[in-house]
Design brief:
Number of strands: 5
Helix content: 40-55%
Protein name: Antitoxin HicB
Shape: elongated
Length: about 140
Amino acid sequence: MLSYPIELTPDSNGTLLATFPDVPEAITVGENEDDALEHALDALEAALEIYFAEKRPIPLPSKAKRGQRVVRLPALATSKVLLANEMLQQKVRKAELARRLKVNQVQIDRLLKLNHSSKIELVESAFEALGKHLELRVV
């Protein structure tokens, strides 16, 4: 899974500002550390949706500094980020991927939405259509 380092900075009004060095668009605030971390995943996913919508490469996380907190994207969201980046790298558009998978383009639109509950089998098939394969591991 992708683990994005997060910076928590005390704000002037007693709250904590949560930002992501790798995704500057992802910003949120919390009353305390737990609250800020709770909102952080939503902020990160919302910011990543901007990259999806604008068809820009999605930044991968840098290595966290010792003791730095991270926000982990869920496995399905991670696979979607990697798929979107692979499509951009190979210059494969959604219509072309739909053709290769023999599915309606609407299914590909949903596949490239972080919050849509896509089936992992479709993600696997999409990678295969791009000449790649998806691997999961437990550490």
